[in-house]
Write a structure and sequence with these properties.
five-stranded mixed barrel
């Protein structure tokens, strides 16, 4: 099984391009993930992972993901290789996104840099207003 789940913050807004072969939208971005343990006297360290999202997930990334937003990415780890201009074989390891979720609280997203498509009336609502007891599955 090849499954990766990461929780981190975007280091910059996603870069958008289209694939050369079949013109599919591709979003690439980097996720900074804090390491779980910190040695005494040292600052928190982070690992940086390259994420690739295709098609509708790339649309989502382009519309809603901004630098600094905390997200959870679920996907698969993939390694590819290519030959650079100088004929040197290069290897790239990246996470192919299958799901992306917001991990910041609604208030943090609202007060920081909210996604541009959140409507003004939605910004005024609290989490309790957005989910009623009738909609819960238990």
């Amino acid at each position: 099984m090849n499954k990766t789940i990461l929780l981190g913050r975007l280091t910059k807004a996603p870069e958008i391009r289209y694939s050369q072969t079949n013109n599919i939208k591709v979003a690439t971005f980097s996720l900074a993930v804090n390491r779980r343990f910190v040695k005494e006297g040292e600052e928190i360290q982070a690992d940086f992972f390259n994420i690739v999202a295709y098609s509708k997930l790339a649309d989502f990334a382009e519309r809603f993901l901004k630098k600094g937003i905390q997200i959870c990415v679920s996907g698969r780890l993939q390694t590819r290789n290519y030959e650079d201009k100088n004929g040197v074989r290069r290897y790239v390891t990246e996470i192919i996104a299958e799901e992306i979720y917001f991990a910041d609280s609604f208030n943090k997203i609202e007060n920081g840099n909210p996604p541009e498509t959140i409507s003004d009336d939605l910004k005024e609502k609290t989490e309790d207003d957005l989910v009623s007891d009738d909609e819960l599955p238990f």
